[in-house]
Amino acid sequence: MITFILFEQRGGYLQFKISYVNRLKGFIILMGLALSCSSVYGQGKGVVRFLVDVDNGYFEIEINDTMLLKRYKDTLPAGTYNAKVWSPGYVTNNITFTVIEGKTVEKYVEMAKTNDYLDYESNYQDYRNQFHKQFTAPLSLSLASTLVTGVFMVRAYTFKNKIQTDMELYHLSSTTTEIDEIKLRVADYNKRYNRQRTFYYIGSGVSALCIGGTIWSYLNFKKNNTEPVYFKESPFKDKYSFNITPYGCSFTLHI
Amino acid sequence: MQLHTSHIKRAGLLLFGVLLVFSSCLKKIEEADHLDTNIFDRDYTGGQWFNIVDYYQYSNELGQIRVKVVFDIPESNLPNLKSSYFNLAYRRGTTELWQYAVLELNNKGGFNGSFDFITNEEHLYCLTLGIYLPEEDAVINYFEECVQL
Looking at this predicted complex, what is its ipTM? Predict the structure, then answer.
């Protein structure tokens, strides 16, 4: 602690006399050294890239309990840092990394899934399998059946048009040989038309059954299954807040 | 988009409705199985395609008594696209051989003609008309009609 100011009265004059003046000088010199040392460390910065091994693409990194990163790359002053890496469904991982001035360092972070998340994944997989079995598969069958039925319908219409065209020609023609040819064509098209018609009706029946079955199956699925949900809050939530207002912005660290 | 039950039901009903509508348009074409109304069709199953419009006795240039039978082929019995001529086969009675004539289109869109008969004691005059196919030398769809004077 520095104390100074001693008043001495001499012959009616007030005089300041600084005691510990040498210590003050020493203090000023020390402060100057400290400042210059810190400015030397602050000048050097490097880039750090985090390769976080998660399958959801999201992670948060708390560096030295003071800074929160939500991106894979940042520029930091050179030095060694301690960090905590979190991702939803994963155990928070404590890591250490060193930033080298003027260089880019990569830090691979291996993450382990929590038991809760593993359970959720298993339940969700079961849920999806059941969904595919009770909805996707019957729906695919319905669509395939409807498409095939549609093909039969189009072909039937094509033949129907040909038959109608030839029937008109039949009523126009006054040449017996031409009429013979027309009738042969009509007989052929009619046979094929009736065949396509039959397939179309069968297909329609099958499609209707499949559609009905799909609806029933889906309703059954919804009744007996609930989609598993996994939600985990970030441990860093509410610890950092960044506010922007029309009058300025502020960053707050909640300790 | 979340899959709601109502969406599924609506889509299903719409699809079913579409199938139903189209099925009503794909009916059996009855006429295609019974294409036999054109008089030029070998398999023609319709009725007589000509009419006897008049018949009378008259005396020809040589003073001989003859019976004229007048017929016509109405437009309604002919195909929609009219030919300008008609290859006709005819015979008087049942014993006479086929004879052939070419009729020309009249102003009513049909064909008409007449044939003379030698008078007989029965005063019964039967005319058989058919369609002649020159390329095959065949007669199809012939009908006989008799008139009594």
Answer: 0.85
